[in-house]
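Sharing in case it's useful to others searching the archive later.

Someone asked me privately for the predicted structure of Heme ABC transporter ATP-binding protein, so I'm posting the question and my answer publicly. Question first, with the sequence:
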Amino acid sequence: MSVNIKVLNLSFQYQAEPILKGINLEVEQGDILGIIGPNGSGKSTLLKNINALLKPMEGKVMLEGKDLLKMNRQEIARSMAVVPQDTSPGFNFTAYEIVMMGRVPHLDRFQKEGEKDRQIVREAMGLTSSWSFKDRPITELSGGERQRVILARALAQEPQIILLDEPTAFLDISYQTEIFDLVKKLNQERNLTVIAVLHDLNLASQYCHHLILLKEGKIYRLGAPREVITASNIKEVYGTRVIVGRHPLSDTPYVSLLPGINEKNEEKKSRRVHVIGGGGSASPLLKLLYSLGHQVSVGVINAGDTDWETARELGVPCVEERPFSSLSKEKHQENLKMIEEAELIIMANVPFGRGNLKNLEAALHALEREIPLLVYNGVDISSRDYTGGKAVELYNQLKDKGAREIYEEEELMEVLN
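And my answer, the predicted structure tokens:
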């Protein structure tokens, strides 16, 4: 694919305050690129630099190989259209008149629009389902209707690139999906390049091919949604803990908030807790510890295991072994190292076979290092032993050496508090 836009070492500041710092970026034709990040990270400022509404202090933006600042506004508008965040009208034009304004870049001075222009406007309003209210004043339209009109105006410019600055910020959920379904359709049918500033991480994940995550004016991560929207990235950039799962239909990352968790209350009560799990036994425990703000790790877990999936969703450090493989000596040593760095070890109701027996040995290692060990025994160990009695034998050694058995979540909360 050819490159539509290239941003080269771009920096920008308002007065003496740096806003963007050394941004480098290539946007290929037909891409849907989302720009995400917390307030004040430079999202809208970057979009305005890409559209030459702002002039960078350093670096430049290239549009189809041309320096954007050496192009006039009419030339830029033929290639690039903008859908702003605020669509509040300043004048009482009809919807049709607003969309016809999109043809201005293609008209000479004092030239009137012709049949070709009217046909393009009809097509744009048809695509955006806004033709039915073409004669209504823009001031009488709902937020969603106005946004469709502004998008139609952008399409009437016949651009190669559309820039969207939080286009769904003031819309309810039905209008949000409607606007982005339309943008996605235009991208697929017309190979339209889309660059969108978005606050909603789930919308960004669902509709964008690639994402830029900005932090303090710099690109923190750039890549596909599953590479960018991770629990660890969000914690680092937004300063909040979330669970990142998978959307049930699209399999894209899906962000769920954890109310009441922030960096301040983390500092008050955070402990380093290592969990011994497997077979899905540790997933509820991992989510609980994570939601309470503790520094959690887990191991050894086979890749593909439910506990492994949960660790990935939470961004929790995990010692992982190959799928359906016995725990190797190497992974066992990694697990011991994590255990030695922890303040507390918790072993879930793990079913034990010969392949994961080393996890019981790891629990013994914790006690030998005088690290407190809690063992869940809500399901009796004898019914979880598939080793011919070896797991029960090791479990009894744990109890003899001081492991504390717990049966309910309330008991765990007492220990943690």
